[in-house]
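Fold Annotation — chain and its backbone

Fields — amino acid sequence, structure tokens

___
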Amino acid sequence: QVQLVESGGGLVQPGGSLRLSCAASGSIVRINNMGWYRQAPGKQRELVAVISRGGSTNYADSVKGRFTVSRDNAKNTVWLQMNSLKPEDTGVYYCNADAVLTPSSLAEIRYWGQGTQVTVSS
């Protein structure tokens, strides 16, 4: 099985920065896309950013220019650098990874981390 462990959440004032990390471990052949989602109280989980194995990125409009997603394929790790944070960025942030577990197969399985709380408040 695959485990994703997140870290880096916390309480920050508006305008501040946080850096989230997510490390995947287990019997992994390859991880294709890795991404970050968030869920605010009373709202559905939404995509924040995704990065392909080759480094192509996609961001939600609400975070473009403020957040940066990056990864290290050798370490199966993805980061989310969050700058100029706003109160509306508050929520539980989840990472995911589309992992290939069998060398002879292209089938992916999506795994999720346990979530880390980000609170932006003065």
Summary: The chain has no helices and eleven strands.
